[in-house]
Specification:
By secondary structure, this protein is α/β, with parallel strands linked by helices. The protein has one domain: P-loop containing nucleotide triphosphate hydrolases (Rossmann fold), CATH 3.40.50.300. It contains eight helices and six strands, in the order βαααβααβαβααββ. The chain has a four-stranded parallel β-sheet with strand order 2-1-3-4, sandwiched between helices. It has a two-stranded antiparallel ribbon with strand order 5-6. A hairpin with a 2-residue loop joins β5 and β6. α1 crosses α7 and α4 crosses α6. The chain is globular, with a radius of gyration of 17 Å.
Amino acid sequence: MPLISVSGTQGIGKSTFIEDFIANWPMYRTMDKTYRDVIKNNNLSINQNTTKESQRIILESIIEDLRSVGKDEYVIFDRSPIDNIVYSIWAYDKNKGDIDDAFVADCINISRHASQKLDVMFMIPMTKQNPELVDDGLRDIDPIYQSEIDELFKGLKKKREENDDVFFVKNDSPMFIEVFGSREARIEIARLYLNEEGDFYGEEDSLILDSNGDAITSNNDIDTGEAQQLREVLGLQKDNIYRGDKYQI
């Protein structure tokens, strides 16, 4: 059964999207406890003050959630292993805390394989309709930080579209789909991929056709005007983020 994750920068509306998603596809559930509970229970330093310990504990909790679900369950997760890559790369690039290139490389290796259990990763990008940043006690409300994290997510999505084999397992990784716009628009984008029973459309009944009228079954083939404008990659300060290789997103 489908396993879906929702990613995106701080305060972009992930929890709201999950709430709306479950209202439209009630066969899905989300986890009773999330990474937020892990942060609170372990008193972790996060966001711009994150550390190796924090990122390791959060990643382990996300992976444990993935392992805990059965094959017959419909589950939508708040965040994915890929989120760990984004926040770890940001901290390394900005010389924050104790995160170094070896730690980032280990996170990439672990996350790319853990993500294989997912069928789809929905990502909510920043647009003109961003919700207002509200301090909830965990969220960083620095708009520059929010934007830089957003650009890293977009950079990873671009790598997925290129069938990248560093951040993702080549030819064996989940679709990476942007859902953007109003709450209603985000759900309508999800409907392009999911039928009323909560399953993904097959090629024979896909709602998405290319210019030749052929069914599109991978988001790699899908391009929308607004989404395309959102794919400019963040110019990182450091070149070497993967065990000394000059491979940046």
